[in-house]
Amino acid sequence: MTVSVLFVCLGNICRSPTAEAVFRERVIAAGLEEKICIDSAGTGDWHIGRAPDPRTREAAARRGYHYQMDSLRARQVDPQDFYEFDVVLAMDNANLADLQAMQPADVTVTLGRFLDYASGASVSEVPDPYYGGEDGFDRVLDLIEGGADGLLDALRERL
């Protein structure tokens, strides 16, 4: 059995590619790369084809995630994603509402917020660091690392 996960934010250049890279590292370290498929996308179309934001890549590289970030390119969520992924996780409530509006009626997918998997998280949304300072990208990584650990634990139960 395999499980497929899609991480979603607004433009797919900050939060969701960070979640994809961090979670991929966790999956590889756990030896589950053959059982868990991972991707990311955005609800908006502004950055299609672009690499993750340079500040995202720099923050990720400082923590050793640069390898996983190098090949990522932004894409927009497609209705077909709801048929192809088992778990679709939004970075914030606005993204979740957009996904709920897009979800075809005949699809049963686990749809929720990413940080619902982070035990002990003091917030329920991963804040968008795009218009903020450098520290926002480190804060995003802190939150995503916690969420990735919890998500991996939850998916192990499904495998």
UniProtKB/TrEMBL annotation:
Keywords: Hydrolase, Protein phosphatase. The keyword Magnesium does not apply. Its EC number is 3.1.3.48. InterPro entries: LMW_PTPase, Ptyr_pPase, Ptyr_pPase_sf, Tyr_phospatase_low_mol_wt. The keyword Hydrolase applies. Pfam families: LMWPc. Residues 3-154 form the Phosphotyrosine protein phosphatase I domain. Belongs to the low molecular weight phosphotyrosine protein phosphatase family. This is protein-tyrosine-phosphatase. It comes from Alcanivorax jadensis T9.
